[in-house]
């Protein structure tokens, strides 16, 4: 158990937390949520001992071992991969090194023999003799092939390093597991394995993630950080979001009868309890929801951007986009080849590839940023396309405009300050914030500016290349809703499982050997044996 008592953290006049009192219990997974800058990662650092609170304390059940996902990708560069994973169990690793050092002594004494015997017993109790094989299994499950297990960590690329550090945190089945953005740089198959692992993990898990599907799959509780307070809610992220929205709606309907409110809340809980049977955390979550107190459901104070794309200047005709034999090679590597398809009116297509360079190259071709390709494509004459690229730095670098002047440049019609302020206000830039220089914006703020720009363009076709990068959960949720509600056509690439599953009605995967085009949802696509066979054939022949 973790007990947090009267915890406060202040930086000068700024207070992140004040008088926080929480208990985290065995067998539960807690998703830490909050706006950017609310202190999610900082809270994990307090629990791990990396940061001292201003006041209050954190206590743990004696004897429980904690593991933390390291954020320093260079800390273990000079160690072999397999050894780095075993270092996750610090006590066992220290015993192993001491034991090995004793056996290497030339003047081996009786005292050394006694100490070695003690260490051997401790090592066996910790399952040390299976440590190497257990570490190797973890690495393989996380997509690190055996050929890399004995290489130095510094010889791996960044995506491989992330997986090694994740294996290190999971190694030895710690009693308490702290994970900050564990799905970063993981593919869908590895994320699915991690979801299965955590859903059946009988320990205390605290996780910070912007992946809503991941939070929904693994979390039994949500810890909401808002206005300097932390509150634990039963259920996963979607339950928290929808219940808080329901409570907000009820608060706005002040004249609604009390019994009607209770009935609505009870029906909401009943529906979620029934749906819990579909979850990997089914039993524990259903029990928790069945016992939930109606008073737990409170409206959230969180603000959501207003991302609305439906103000189309001109309705699209039937001719949208035709692609014929499109191909792209970069530095001698074939990214995709012989891509041929027609986009239909109202399609919402998720463009996939195992290589992110391929999807970015695809959008750069369609937007005219890249003219070095083979094949052809043709837009319909009625199409007004708008896009948000993977890297939007070209729109901000070298500019010292305030946000009003920056956005005014992209307004095709009305350029009045109040009109421009309205679009910025939807993106949560209010008051003096609109006078910020665009050169000092954070990644998330730049993305919200790009959404404002896209809304002003009144496009009937939208393209997004990884639009959830740098966004907090509130902005991701607002974007998801905006894309679902958009009545035009969308081409997009995203690693956000929930966004792809709820928006896309068609999937196109680009490969060096061809393409796969399926009219189905994302979950149907990734679980289809027919699709998996096609993928194997295309990547084998590439």
Task: Note down, in words, how this protein is organized.
- Keywords: ATP-binding, Coiled coil, Nucleotide-binding, Repeat.
- Belongs to the ABC transporter superfamily. ABCF family. YbiT subfamily.
- InterPro entries: AAA+_ATPase, ABC_tran_Xtn, ABC_transporter-like_ATP-bd, ABCF_ATPase, P-loop_NTPase.
- It comes from Mucilaginibacter oryzae.
- Residues 2-252, 321-538 form the ABC transporter domain.
- The chain is of the alpha/beta class.
- It folds into 2 domains: 1-64 and 175-301, Rossmann fold (3-Layer(aba) Sandwich), CATH 3.40.50; 321-541, Rossmann fold (3-Layer(aba) Sandwich).
- Helix content is 39%, strand content 21%.
- It contains 19 helices and 18 strands.
- The chain has helices at 40-48, 81-86, 90-103, 110-125, 131-141, 158-170, 188-199, 212-218, 237-252, 258-275, 282-290, 356-366, 403-408, 417-426, 443-456, 473-485, 497-503, 522-526, 529-541; strands spanning 2-11, 14-24, 29-33, 55-60, 66-68, 176-180, 204-208, 221-226, 229-234, 321-330, 333-343, 348-352, 374-379, 385-388, 461-465, 489-493, 506-511, 514-518.
- It has a 6-stranded mixed β-sheet, with helices on both faces. The chain has a 6-stranded mixed β-sheet with strand order 14-15-16-12-17-18, sandwiched between helices. Strands 2-1-4 form a 3-stranded antiparallel β-sheet, with no helix packed on it.
- Strand 6 (176-180), helix 7 (188-199) and strand 7 form a beta-alpha-beta unit.
- Helix 3 (90-103) packs antiparallel against helix 4 (110-125), helix 9 (237-252) runs antiparallel to helix 10 and helix 16 runs parallel beside helix 17.
- The two termini are 52 Å apart.
């Amino acid at each position: 158990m973790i007990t947090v008592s009267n915890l406060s953290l202040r930086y000068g006049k700024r207070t992140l937390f004040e008088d926080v009192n929480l208990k985290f219990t065995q067998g539960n997974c807690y998703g830490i949520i909050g706006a950017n800058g609310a202190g999610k990662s900082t809270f994990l650092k307090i629990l791990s001992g990396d940061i001292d609170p201003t006041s209050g304390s954190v206590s743990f059940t004696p004897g429980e071992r904690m593991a933390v996902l390291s954020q320093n990708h260079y800390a273990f560069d000079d160690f072999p991969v397999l050894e780095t994973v075993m270092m996750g169990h610090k006590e066992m690793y220290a015993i192993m090194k001491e034991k090995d050092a004793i056996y290497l002594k030339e003047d081996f004494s009786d005292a050394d023999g006694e100490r070695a015997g003690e260490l051997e017993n401790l090592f066996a109790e910790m399952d040390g003799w299976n440590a190497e094989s257990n570490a190797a299994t973890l690495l393989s499950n996380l997509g690190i092939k055996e050929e890399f297990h004995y290489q130095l960590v510094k010889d791996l690329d960044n995506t491989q390093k992330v997986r090694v550090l994740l294996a290190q945190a999971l190694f030895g089945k710690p009693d308490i597991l702290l994970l900050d953005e564990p799905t970063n740089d993981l593919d869908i198959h590895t994320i699915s394995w991690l979801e299965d692992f955590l859903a059946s993990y009988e320990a205390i898990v605290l996780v910070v993630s912007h992946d809503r599907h991941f939070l929904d799959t693994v979390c039994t509780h949500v810890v909401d950080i808002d206005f300097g307070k932390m509150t634990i809610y039963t259920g996963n992220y979607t339950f928290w979001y929808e219940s808080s929205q329901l409570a907000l709606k009820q608060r706005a309907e002040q004249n609604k009868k009390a019994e009607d409110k209770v009935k609505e809340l009870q029906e909401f809980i009943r529906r979620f309890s029934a749906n819990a049977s579909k979850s990997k955390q089914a039993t524990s979550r259903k029990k928790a929801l069945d016992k939930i107190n109606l008073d737990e459901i409170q409206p959230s104070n969180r603000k959501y951007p207003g991302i609305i794309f439906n103000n189309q200047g001109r309705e699209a005709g039937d001719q949208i986009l035709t692609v014929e034999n499109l191909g792209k090679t970069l530095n001698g590597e074939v990214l995709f080849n012989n891509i041929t398809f027609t986009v239909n009116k109202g399609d919402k297509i998720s463009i996939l590839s195992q290589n992110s360079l391929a999807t970015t190259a695809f959008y750069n071709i369609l937007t005219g940023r890249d003219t070095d390709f083979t094949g052809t494509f043709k837009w319909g004459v009625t199409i007004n396309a708008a896009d948000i690229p993977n890297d939007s730095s070209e729109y901000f670098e070298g500019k010292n405009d305030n946000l009003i002047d920056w956005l005014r440049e992209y307004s095709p019609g009305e350029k009045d300050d109040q009109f421009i302020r309205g679009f910025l206000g939807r993106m949560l830039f209010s008051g003096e914030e609109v006078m910020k220089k665009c050169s000092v914006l954070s990644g998330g703020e730049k993305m919200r500016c790009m959404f404002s720009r896209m809304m002003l363009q009144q496009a009937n076709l939208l393209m997004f290349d990884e639009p959830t990068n740098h966004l907090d959960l509130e902005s991701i949720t607002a974007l998801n809703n905006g894309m679902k509600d958009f009545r035009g056509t969308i081409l997009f690439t995203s690693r956000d499982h929930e966004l792809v599953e709820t928006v896309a009605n068609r999937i196109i995967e680009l490969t060096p050997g061809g393409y796969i085009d399926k009219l189905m949802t994302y979950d149907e696509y990734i679980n289809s044996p027919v699709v998996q066979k096609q993928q194997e054939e295309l990547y084998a022949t590439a």
